[in-house]
Amino acid sequence: MNTKKRENLAAYLFLAPALLLLGTFLVIPALMAIYYAFTDYYLLTPDQRQFIGLQNFIEIFKDPIFIQSLKNIVLFVVFVIPIQVGAALGLALLINKPRKGNIFFKVAYFSPVVLSLVVISVLWLYLLNPSEGLINSLLTNIGLEAQPFLSSPKQAMLTIVFVSAWQGAGYQMLIFLAGLQNIPASVYEAGKIDGVNKWQNFIHITLPLLKPTSVLIMITTLISAFKLIIQPMVMTQGGPMNSTITPVYYIYQSGFSDRMIGYASAMTVIFGVIIGIITLVQSRLTKEDEM
Amino acid sequence: MKKVMFLTGLLFMAIIVTACGGGNSSSGAGDNEVSLWVHTSDETPEGEAMQNIIDRFNEENEGTYSAKIEFIPRSGAGGGYEDKINAALTTDSLPDVLTLDGPNTAAYAEAGIIAPIDDYITNKDDLLPSIIQQGTYEDQLYAVGYSESGVGVFYNKQMLEEAGIDLSTLPTVEEPWDWNQFMELSETLVNTYDTAAIDMGLDDKSEWLMYAFSPFLWSQGGNIVSEDGTTAEGYFNDENSVKAFSFIQEMVKEGYTTITPVEKGFHTGEYAMKFGGSWTIAELEDYPDVEYGVMPYPTSPDTNELVSPSGSWQYAMAASTEKQEAAGALIDFMTSTESLTEITLANSVLPAAHSVVEEVQDKVSPEMNVLIQQNQKSAHARPVLPNYPQVSRVFQQTVSDVAYYEENSDVQKLLDEKTGQMEKALK
User: Where are the transmembrane segments (chain A) (predicted)?
Assistant: First the structure.
């Protein structure tokens, strides 16, 4: 009994630093946000905040910009997940084969992940510049029309999708690569004996055996895709015509530019619940698949 | 749930972290020592001038008052410094005197952060009307701008001459051109150079769109919100607004200006004209090949009244200070003709007071003098509203949206929609 108690104590001691940090920076702020969501907290008058019940929530559901931001993020997620995950898988397959110079490609594909998102965004801002950018110069050189990538309400979000997928794919590529290398060679040998071709090999052996990796990647990519803020902040400031405003960006604006902490907190609560539901549904679906 | 945690973590981590920083630096001042926070760095010409002014204040008031200046440089969008002010509010550790951006006057005054300083400022009559307008909330003076800013139309003399324009016929502050004349000039330039005539900065989706484009509305006789600041309905969507925004739309539609200007297009001879301020004059020092002049803002053909942008950072007294007299004396000292002249010349900005105009006009270029004259005659402060950030953002989006002439050919409809958004902020 005594030793067990001591073991327990030791366990809690080891947990303490992590719990303390999580508590200070995640749990307490989260609880504070939920509380503020029901108040009219205005950043400049912290002492005068009052409990206002559900008023923030009612206003949010009537707020056209918030609704627009939800539509935008759905569009972003729907496009970015297949592109990013597909690209990651493709790259992983490419560099999985032992080949000269593989290290170079591995580093090259992974390097955008290491760079700051702000740097990436500014870089693409130059590349995509409508009149002097590299991409439009290329387009006009091969006889195509220059595109208004970031200044057209129809293209802006898709451009951000492309930049984000390009930036993020390297990370998922590494995880896919680990998954690929975990597939035992014996399975492929068995396939060889049965005389499968390359395509069958991929569809019937590689893909099913990558399933656990794919589930992990889908969930993490989905969650991080919903967090989109830096690329529109730097590249379009939410425009043109609110076509790239995202929920997190709008929450940031309401909280810090408009100083409406209560309203912003209420949006974080709503948005958090939405993400929670989506994650739950997704993990349910993928679990059923596995059986 | 991870998401909630992440978001709220993000939101409040910043507050907690900065709050910790704010607490340490507050106290430690002597009985008559006034603490002053400024948003600039001590390495800028502006910061150096401020330090000199404080040194002089301490010398001249030795034995009675003294002041200590703390530099808290702000980041691009005004972060840093304003975060620190917000943190100091929650911990009750504001300095005695602080700087604040013009559009923040109403919010700070209404929240009781800054105190009226009518009684301490001795040269109120000397200050430009736009400075008084910017610092006044509910008939009381809360803050005094220490410089001014403005925008004029910069033009490339050589390019205009080559397009067959007689430079001596160009408008002056006394006789500005209206929108129609300005568009005629633009058309000539577009026909000659086959590219946009003017870079109006329409790619800048920030405060610039409010700052540079609201004067068109005022020149037309319109307004963004009602006089008492309670409603935008019937103001932002009235006939005057439609006319002003139609002018902006037409500039884009006719190809006179562009929503995607080439960077430094005026500096490199791509465009013949550009909206620019005193900072543009500084930039152009690096482009000696460009021979340029400055003409005043175009006016509404209905009124022909010249209205130009203005606005600046200001000094104000914290409402929480216990050293009102010393703090008031410091602000008065910092806004005296001598101090204002020093900072105006050091920072190459426009003067904030009539006496300072006289001091500096012989020491600056003729182009700068156009801006100074225009500012003295026609500067209009941005609206003094507690909900300025929201109002300004809706205005910015309206300018940005109206430039999409195909999607928003019905200007009235666009303005009705935006007025609704503004209404929400004004409630």
Answer: 12-38, 73-95, 107-127, 156-180, 260-281
